[in-house]
Amino acid sequence: MILVTGATGRTGQRVVTHLLSSGQAVRILVRAHSVVPGDWDGVERAAGDLDDPASLQQAMSGVDGLFLLSPMDPDLDRFERNAIDAAVLVGVAHIVKLSTTKPEPDSPISWWRAHWRAEQHLRACERPWTILRPNGIAFFLLDFARDVREHGVMRTTAGDGRMALVDPDDIAAVAACVFADRARYTGAVLDITGPDAVSYADVARILTALIGRGVAHLDVSVDEARAAMRDGRPDWEVEGVLANWLMTRDGSGGFDGVTGEVERVTGRRARELRGFLRAHVEAFRPLV
Predict the structure, then answer these.
(1) Residue 44 in contact with residue 28, Cβ under 8 Å?
(2) What's the predicted TM-score (pTM) here?
(3) How does pLDDT run across 229-260, given as a tens digit for each residue?
(4) Closest by Cα among 64, 13, 68 to 43
(5) In whole angstroms, what is the distance from residue 229 CA to residue 146 CA?
(6) Rounded (5°) CA angle 274-233-161
(7) Cα separations (Å) of 231 from 142, 227, 228, 246?
(8) Which residues of 70-91 are buried (b: 16+ CB within 10 A; e: fewer)?
(9) In the predicted model, what is the mean pLDDT of residues 22-50?
């Protein structure tokens, strides 16, 4: 039985689907108001919250694996410490944590610093673990959908920087393989990337071909980008996105590296970005 946190999110849903397809029994941690896909036959539900240690211990009763996925938050390590500590108390046999591209204690991105702290707590716990580090999940491209629909543009400060974006389905496939062969991946840190490094201009060209309308990448100033993102997002998120773009621009993030980890773990090549964009093309297509 695998307990999945963050199961109702976009990546978490794919993890559940792949675990079910691989024959794993799945339980999901949900809040009372969570909306669960209707086609998850046989999936157990456990009411709880990552900020409620007692509920976590109850949710982990009878569980031998934990997939730990937390919402983006500068304090996500607090939630993950709760889950890790509960897993230790209950005796969960293996913990798989979804981390981020480059977790470091001095990262300019606040939630990446939190991932680093959570990783350190996981490494120090007394249970077998595996860490998955996706190199930028392709889902974040949907943040540009409105600008593409309405204006045919994508605005960033990333310049010509390149990134090997990973399809969330590949993350889920890797997770399922890890749980199916836990001993092999105990103590492993898997850097998961897409098969090719692309620039935002490349993304714009792919979208142009898919929707039949010109899409351009506009390289704007930091001040322009910051002002455009002041749309209700918290400051820590705005500054984190800007930092990510600047690390993409100058290459300091190493986001252009291609690891081939998806193929080594799953036996198939990582999915190309064009396939992800094709699957979500309606989000970018003009309404009229």
Answers:
(1) yes
(2) 0.94
(3) 877 789 999 999 999 999 999 999 999 999 99
(4) 13
(5) 12
(6) 40
(7) 16, 8, 7, 20
(8) bebbbebbebbbbbbebbeebe
(9) 83
